[in-house]
Here is the input.
Amino acid sequence: MTLEEEKETADASAPRRARKKAAPSLYAEHQKVQPRSVSGTFRVLKWASNLTLVPLFILGPWLRWDRGPGVPDQAIFLDMAGRRGYFLSIEIWPQEVYYLTGLLLLGAIGLFLATALLGRVWCGFTCIQTVYTDIFQFIEAVIEGDRLQRLRLDKAPWTAGKLAKKAATNAVWLLVSLIVSVSWIFYFNDAPTTARALLDGSAPLGLYGFVGLFAASTFLFAGYAREQVCIYMCPWPRFQASMFDEDSLIVTYETWRGEPRGPAKAGQSFDGRGHCVDCTMCYQVCPTGIDIRDGSQLACIGCGLCIDACNGIMEKMGLPPGLITYDSTNNQLARSKGTPTRLRLVRSRTLIYGALLAAVAAVMAFGLWTRSTLEVNVLHERSPLYVPMSDGSIRNGYTLKILNMGRAPQVYVLRVQGIEGASLSVVGYGRDGATEVDLPVPGDSVGSFRVYVSAPRKGLKGKNHDLAFVLSEKTGGLSRTHASLFAGPGGE
Amino acid sequence: MAKVELDPVSGTHTTGHEWDGIKELNNPIPKWWIYVFYACVAWSVVYWIAYPAWPTLTTYTKGFLGYSSRAELRGEMLKADAEKAGWLTRFKDATPAAIAADPALRNYAQAGGAVAFKDNCAPCHQTGGAGAHGYPTLADDEWLWGGTLEEIQATIVNGVRAPGNANTRVSEMPRFGADNLLNAGQIDQVADYLAGLAEGKPADGPGKQVFAEQCAACHGAAGEGMAAVGAPALNNQLWLYGGGKAAVVAQIQAPRHGVMPAWGGRLDDTTIKQLTVYVHSLGGGK
Here is the structure.
């Protein structure tokens, strides 16, 4: 196909800016972006990303991990009903949800760092919206043909052939959506049993509802909403620019070299004019339908497909590649002046993001490394704060919760520290003042105890005194100390 | 009429709105966006028809689904009752002592008793049985009418000086001053003696003699109290109507007598058993 032909058919989906000029309505008609297939470095990268991430996501819940009898053997499993999170050898209780906070922090800072270094590399290659849109567009291209065929098909009247093609596209989309949907559900429900239940119809209605919900949203977002999600729904493009600086690598058009643009024939002289031959290939391949020659913009997801397209044309024209390139604004400027370019990955911005990332990762790793199967919570009774007893001593009440996060039942020895002459009694486990009390807790559960601590009034000077509860395994080596307080009338 | 024009800088049309020379650019939102808004409006109409929505003068539109939050609550309560039924049969034939000995039943009773306590007992005895002036502290180890499980249960069922209850706990301390059983000097002497007794250092003297003659019959020779007649121990620092000489003299002069309702007919047996175990676990149970 000649360039002229391509230009003619391209008018149907002119770039966004041109459309805006012609449409003074307050509401913009949706015009489907029909990106053209392209090959090149960035296309290969995109497939590499798709083919790594999607299988990882789909196969993830099928990985098994032996944790012993009576415990789920799914490697990655968020058991909402059982209130446990499993990740390989790590097992998280609801009280430890801060690990999730840590993961979210790592994700956020990682995104900042990646954006400062490589621009919107997340948007262009790894975002779920991008990945599934790309796969859906590939399916569309296989069934309905490339951009030009699809544009013609959209304009054509509804014939049996068109109906068959559209139905086939939607059917395959739906199938992919269902696979994505159940895969997500498997992370929260044991994969093999849930798969069987979903297939033989014995799964609860709510589960089918969720399968439908996630499948419908995948279908709608990747099949129809596509770039509208990036441009109008996603908050990330709105503030990503604050992570950029002049040294961030982004998709850019070399205006100084390309302009003034104009049509050209291979082998002609480019003296006195720009290298851009205005072939419009850059926006024909764009998945969000923008013209990168307008400069860096919100709707650009940084996928680099326009670079692939432009380099192909430059090669045909016998011109150097890189008219559209993945480079920093500073380097663009340097090249326009003929000064040397340099890659500045280490900058104060990236150093700070990197340091933050390392700090959060270190805290997370330390937390996981030192994670114990024993946790203690002590709640000091507030009403009454303290009770004077008939023998003149002062007594405080506490609710003690022991989290035995191991599999075996344990007996824990409870002691208190910090107050001279303090004695213990635990409702149901010995009422007399004792210095040690044995408390049994079954495996994988929480033991709740009502504890009273008494101390002679003579030793209590102020209103509040530090008191520590020390809990140690009777047969194992685990021990936990929990700081609390002991209240008294004070004044003596 | 507003004039739409092309803005030369941005290449975008204006909406035609202008305020003090500032013009609004028209960056049109996608049409589907406004369709989503219309869909929400349509949904709200469906909601009006399906659910209770509009007030009328005397009632409201019920909605064809027949939903009401009261009915939902009733359903939830019935469901909760059904879930509790299994537990409640276990409480039916168990004595408070048996409940206290079974960890599962004890935990259930403590939770249930805590709720019943907040509803019925806390207004006088305070949250957690902290007590108040004239209302006994249930968290300490002094009991007017006994602190065993059985004694606590009997007190809850029959009350203290509860009108119209034949089995209620009754006793009455004489009005030593008001009825001229003791003169002011004697009351003063016995009050001084009581101050020493509370410290564990009872002093010899006329007060000791008055105590032995007038008080020891109920409060015990050493002031240890007597739960059978609700006579409090006087040999410690815990005072229902306040320590200090003036408060003690006032109590000897014209004693105050607390009244607690009989909960027997008001609360069911299971609730009373749970309350018994809960109160016993507040810290002072014998």
